[in-house]
Specification:
Fructose-1,6-Bisphosphatase, Chain A, domain 1; D-Maltodextrin-Binding Protein, domain 2; eight-stranded mixed sheet; about 30% helix; globular; cytoplasm; EC 3.1.3.11; FBPase_C_dom; magnesium
Length: about 350
């Protein structure tokens, strides 16, 4: 009988098969700026809350937690029951972890000061995006941004800790609750995706080092608002049709973004007469997805400038968003510029 000595994998792919999120975070911790364990734990806290929200969404039809909650949030949108549940779950996870000093949530009017002056991070989060799709069983998601506070640890939270440009993010990600649940995130060193294995209760690395195709043949936009678009957007969408691109739009931002990130395509949410500043929120929707897009080789713009360069001036600031395959985003900007001449 031959007995072979164990030879450690030297390929650099030790985390490519059967790797849990927790193990991956530990393997990659040296990539984190100011690595001291807090950011790693914060990502684990978010993953834990995502598991709980996943459980709630999968049983929504059986436990009477679908449908409207009966209140309107700060955005003027009717809250769904799962909006409220998801917000509570993430708030609890982020507050108990100890790494976060403040939270900005779509569901809260003001900044939530956790009274944790030793926390190093600020989290901006949309706990449940696309919640109007819950009752019809279409994919929904969570979007989050993580910033390192600007003020000295131990001091009170100030406006400068909250109002940071997207380029200041130290991590960002989203969770997609669909036919399978996925967590996709970046810490500025590429983008990795993890799929949830229900029977084991773990996220496993399934999409290492995601790279967005340079171009694609999918465009995602709400064409019901076509009569309110500026001419450049109308011209671009008509060009997509002439080139026989496929229209794919679910009304769930995370689902549409995720598909285009993997397959190649562009997501468009332009300004309209009704929403001249756009509708998507800068701090906890556009910034996170723009950071992920750029880390995967894609682009994100408001039509005129890079999303990550916009300096926020208000907590729930809105912005147009065009994000996806790099060549397609550049093409949209070209059409918008030409329409202004």
């Amino acid at each position: 009988m031959r007995i072979l000595p164990y030879a450690p994998d030297q390929s650099g792919l030790a985390y490519s098969v059967g790797t849990t999120l927790d193990r991956f975070i530990k393997l990659k911790q040296s990539d984190f700026p100011f690595a001291s364990g807090e950011l790693s734990q914060l990502l684990r806290d978010i993953a834990l809350a995502a598991k709980i929200v996943n459980r709630e969404t999968t049983r929504a039809g059986l436990s009477n937690i679908g449908g409207a909650f009966g209140q309107v949030n700060v955005q003027g949108e009717e809250q769904q029951k799962l909006d409220v549940i998801a917000n509570i779950r993430f708030m609890r996870a982020l507050s108990k972890g100890g790494e976060v000093c403040a939270i900005v949530s779509e569901e809260e009017d003001s900044v939530i000061d956790l009274q944790n002056s030793s926390g190093k991070y600020v989290v901006a989060i949309d706990p449940l995006d696309g919640s109007s799709n819950i009752d019809v069983n279409i994919s929904i998601g969570t979007i989050f941004s993580i910033y390192r506070r600007k003020t000295t640890v131990g001091s009170p939270i100030l406006k400068e800790d909250i109002m940071q440009a997207g380029r200041e993010q130290v991590a960002a990600g989203y969770v997609l609750y669909g036919s399978s649940t996925m967590l996709v995130y970046t810490t500025g060193c590429g983008v990795n995706g993890f799929t949830y294995e229900n029977s084991l209760g773990e996220f496993f690395l399934s999409h290492p080092d995601i790279k967005a195709p340079e171009t694609g043949q999918i465009y995602s936009v709400n064409e019901g608002s076509q009569l309110e678009w500026e001419q450049g957007i109308l011209d671009y969408v008509n060009q997509c049709k002439r080139e026989k691109f496929s229209a794919r739009y679910t009304g769930s931002l995370v689902a549409d973004f995720h598909r285009n990130l993997l397959k190649g395509g562009i997501y468009l949410y332009p300004a309209t007469e009704k929403n001249p500043s756009g509708k998507l929120r800068l701090l906890y929707e556009a910034n996170a997805l723009a950071y992920i897009a750029e880390q995967a080789g894609a682009k994100a713009t408001d039509g005129h400038q890079r999303i990550l360069d916009i300096i926020p001036t208000s907590l729930h600031q809105r912005t147009p968003l065009f994000t996806g395959s790099a060549k397609m985003v550049l093409e949209v900007e070209k059409f918008l510029k030409a329409s202004k001449v």
